[in-house]
Automatic annotation (TrEMBL), chains A, B:
Residues 29-48 bind DNA. Residues 6-66 form the HTH tetR-type domain. It holds the Pfam family TetR_N. This is TetR family transcriptional regulator. It comes from the Bacteria. The lineage of its organism: Bacteria, Bacillati, Actinomycetota, Actinomycetes, Micrococcales.
Length: 218, 218
DNA sequence: GCCACCTCTTGAACATGTTCAACTGAACAT
DNA sequence: ATGTTCAGTTGAACATGTTCAAGAGGTGGC
């Protein structure tokens, strides 16, 4: 019962994540986590401010998994479309273990006040990990992404991943088929648009978009 | 206490919506709604399956308000950009009353299983009301929107509104300034892209996009 | 009149996230 | 040794969404 217990905090963390994976969010009560970890309910709250904070730990795990899955692809080069496609599909895979309860978890994540929100301070580590992947997607692409886009594109692609995840949540198809179809279609479209962005006719639209992104970010 | 009480159901509904508006989602307990309405707690559950279903009623109200706000604009004609801009800004205004608690409500709405989700069967009336507005935005625009886009664009714009709302939720700026800036920038960008979509160079990208939309919708 | 049925209503009971006052025990100062 | 402090721990208590067995009251059949 106290074998792998380096310290109480990480023991509770590990217990919670296991239960989340096995039972989902709602079915994993704080009492169950505490009991399974062999501590009192209140103790879990001493180490984690809320259930959301435990979910946030789960997101961190998923993001680490995602990063590990795409390491080889990112190092291998390739064009923007194939890199983006691979990274987005890998994110679907990384979430795959939680597919049954995916909607529950993303629900928690989208709550603006939630610690598990991708925008929350508590998620900073997971967010930066994930955003770094898309920076690599862009910077390592050959042929190179046009200079003008290189600054903002990674963040836009990261947002696109959040969109894909949101879609995935509502996607009841087996094996997330529809979500994968979305990625298969969207990645080449992004690649094509990035290539087209060099054309003079599109210069205005591209400038508008970049200006909008910069304005809105502040 | 029983003055304006046509029937219990609508009395509970009205009471709940008032409390939601005044106190927000979390602070409005089912007990408070029932007590304020002068019925037992369980009675509220007889008429509304869950608290989410009451929130869904609130969304219906907001959507009706939105539709009323844009009636004149839609009847007046104008180009796509100005029509889209007006309708999106009006949606920000319609949600304005709930700005303080906006994040709470949208949180509820985004939960996939939730009755308040824009995609839920329970929200069908609100959804169709809202989607119809964007069909009008597109169909009533002069110069006319290219034939090829007229089918899918309304739904895409409706999704864009959901995106704007999601942004608004995370937008802490006074008067939702950043959200309005997003709309002010995005509407002309959409207008410009729709105009450009006629160009032969973009034909491929447009076809890809439309194909993607059709594939993914199923 | 009486019974069966059905809609509507009640309020106690339940499960769960969260809080909190009290307790433990180790580290440290005197 | 003794006292002090404080991070860590406990479990009962609380608030709230939700459920449910019980009943009220009306309507129609006989």
């Amino acid at each position: 019962m106290a074998d792998d217990r380096l310290d109480t905090r990480s023991h509770i963390r590990a217990t919670a994540l296991r239960l989340f994976r096995d039972r989902g969010y709602a079915a994993t009560t704080m009492r169950a986590i505490a009991e399974e970890a062999g501590v009192a309910t209140g103790n879990a709250y001493y180490h984690f401010a809320s259930k959301d904070h435990l979910v946030q730990e789960l997101y961190l795990d998923v993001n680490r998994d995602h990063a590990a899955r795409v390491r080889a692809t990112l190092d291998a080069g390739g064009d923007l479309t194939s890199r983006l496609r691979a990274v987005l599909l890998a994110s679907v895979d990384a979430f795959g273990d939680y597919h049954a309860f995916g909607s529950e978890f993303v629900t928690v994540a989208i709550r603006p006040g939630s610690a598990a929100s991708p925008f929350s301070p508590a998620s900073a580590e997971a967010r930066e990990l994930s955003q770094a992947l898309y920076r690599e997607v862009v910077d390592g692409a050959t042929p190179a992404v046009p200079e003008a886009l290189r600054g903002e594109l990674p963040e836009l692609l990261w947002l696109a991943q959040l969109g894909v995840t949101l879609f995935w949540v509502h996607d009841g198809s087996p094996g997330a088929r529809r979500t994968r179809a979305l990625v298969e279609g969207a990645a080449p479209l992004v690649g094509r648009l990035v290539r087209l962005s060099r054309l003079p006719v599109l210069r205005g639209a591209v400038d508008d978009l970049l200006g909008l992104v910069r304005t809105v970010r502040a």
